[in-house]
Amino acid sequence: MFSGTTRVAQAFKARGAHVTAVDITRYGEVLAGCYVATDSDRVDMDHLAVEVDRLNGLAGHAGYFTETFCRDARYVQPFNGERVDAIRDHLEGRRDDPLFPVLLSSLVEAADRVDSTTGVQMAYLKNWAPRSHNRLELRVPDLLQGPGTAVRGNAVDLAAGLGPFDLAYLDPPYNQHRYIANYHVWETLVAWDAPEHYGIANKRVECREPHASSPFNRKPLMPDALRSVIADVNARIVVLSYNNESWLGLDELVDACSGRGHVAALAFESGRYVGATIGIHNSEGRRVGTPGHQRNLEYVLVAGPEKIVEHMVGPYGEARVEQAA
């Protein structure tokens, strides 16, 4: 759950698991449709390569994407924006094609490789990033063998109705920043609905509407929402990913998982997000603050029958947080 770009889901699927990827965003559903729900054994890879080449050969034309994200804002350069418009217009007529999520994922990833951001899409660089001068090129995605499932929806609403599963991996948001806003360009690329927008990043108005707000991005609501999902999901083992710079402390996380049975917690030192390295800048692009600490702790909590949990965390003894044992 909270599968996002499906990196973890792909890792499980690559090891032979049957994966159900759940996310509330449109782009999360499309990426899961490509990398989780699509079985590479059932795809004519030669045909897919021809389709990708055909999309790469389309002549560009300026449309909503170019005007909104390349001229009025600076997500990608206009010459690439015109190609995005042309390719996405073509794909819109193929929503019923089994290859639609695969080809659209290829386009999303191609745009990401030539964007002018520091990672998220809350703002764009004052000067074009070096990679933004490259020509947008779609690639054939690295599809995985085996079936899977992609589900779009709110984790709180869906948890009890999914499963049963051997393992549920939960990676909820850590703070008030919503992924629909952090990656709003991808959301618009998938919806292709030419929405009204606001701010210097031209975020879709949906990003500030109440219905788009998640309890996981609201500090007063987040603890109960997380407890609800942990309690409701029908899985033998629950694995929760979190960190030490978030709204809940480790003891609270252990308590939230304790209803599932035995709980073990691991902590891994990790580099912080790119913004922590870049520092704080004003609207003119001048640095007005200094970067803070560069490392944090990523928590992994494992909950379920004691024998299974201890078997799972055994190889990671050095990372174990003793007070959570």
What is the compact description of this entry?
This protein is an alpha/beta fold and 325 residues long. The chain is built from 13 helices and eight strands. The protein has a domain of 132 residues.
Keyphrases for this structure?
single chain; 325 residues; alpha/beta; 13 helices
Strand ordering within the main sheet? 3-6-8-7
Low-pLDDT residue intervals, each spanning 5 or more residues: none
Estimate the mean pLDDT confidence. Answer: 91
Shape: globular
How many H/I helical runs?
A: 13
Biggest β-sheet strands, sense, barrel: 4 strands, mixed
Describe the structure.
With 325 residues, the chain is of the alpha/beta class. It has a domain at 156-177 and 216-325. Helices cover 35% and strands 15% of the residues. It contains 13 helices and eight strands. The protein has helices spanning 7-14, 26-35, 45-56, 64-71, 78-92, 100-113, 155-158, 179-182, 184-191, 222-232, 250-257, 274-278, 306-313, and strands at 19-23, 148-152, 165-170, 197-198, 203-204, 235-243, 262-271, 295-304. The strands form three sheets. Strands 3-6-8-7 form a four-stranded mixed beta sheet. Strands 1-2 form a two-stranded parallel ribbon. Strand 4 and strand 5 form a beta hairpin. The two termini are 25 Å apart.
How are the SSEs placed, and which strands pair?
Layout: H1 7-14, E1 19-23, H2 26-35, H3 45-56, H4 64-71, H5 78-92, H6 100-113, E2 148-152, H7 155-158, E3 165-170, H8 179-182, H9 184-191, E4 197-198, E5 203-204, H10 222-232, E6 235-243, H11 250-257, E7 262-271, H12 274-278, E8 295-304, H13 306-313
Parallel strand pairs: 1-2, 3-6
Antiparallel strand pairs: 4-5, 6-8, 7-8
